[in-house]
Amino acid sequence: MIETKYPMTQAIRILKEKGVPFVIHVYAYEEHGGTAVVARELGVDEHRVVKTLVMETETKAPFIVVMCGDKEVSTKNMARYLGVKVVAPCRPETASKHTGYLVGGTSPFGTRRPLKIYVDRTIMDLPVIYINAGKRGLLAEMAPADMAGILKPELVDVAA
To answer: Which residues pair with 66 in a beta bridge?
Structure first.
């Protein structure tokens, strides 16, 4: 197997440090292309391409939701789950400030600040996932159980 050169990100450092098996995939990032572009470029089901969404409550308390690429987060259900009035996506500059990553390259691994992480429960049933590795155009293929072992997330049912 020929190893593709890829940048060393904080997310990849964490994955290596934890000793979990993963495969890096590099693809041509498209602005606002989302998980549909990733699925097309890698030739995989968009449901297995998971997105890392930085959200906040009405008090500006940030957190991460990891969701299947073909689903959206129901902010009403997430707010109800958290027992708050409002949940909304963070503005890109705010998300970058919390995570240290650019939007489109946000990984839940190795964020600048420790953030509470919620993972859609259905992700755990997938054989493999493709999750951002800390840079636009860079994904890690891994088992959902390995992701959960590192992140220690709370599992939720908040897909719209």
So the answer is: 52, 119
Extents of the domains making up the chain: 22-156
**Half-sphere exposure of 141 toward its Cβ, with a 13 Å CA cutoff?**
14
Instruction: Name the nearest CA neighbour of 15 among 143, 112, 124, 123.
Output: 143
Rounded distance, CA 66 to CA 68, Å? 7
Distance in Å from the first CA to the final CA of the chain: 40
Give the CATH superfamily of 22-156.
Answer: YbaK/aminoacyl-tRNA synthetase-associated domain (3.90.960.10)
Strand pairing class (116-120; 154-156)? parallel
Which regions of 93-157 does DSSP assign to beta strands (E)?
116-120, 129-135, 138-142, 154-156
- The pLDDT tens digits of the residues spanning 83-138 come to 999 999 999 999 999 999 999 999 999 999 999 999 999 999 999 999 999 999 99
Full-prediction pTM beyond 0.90? yes
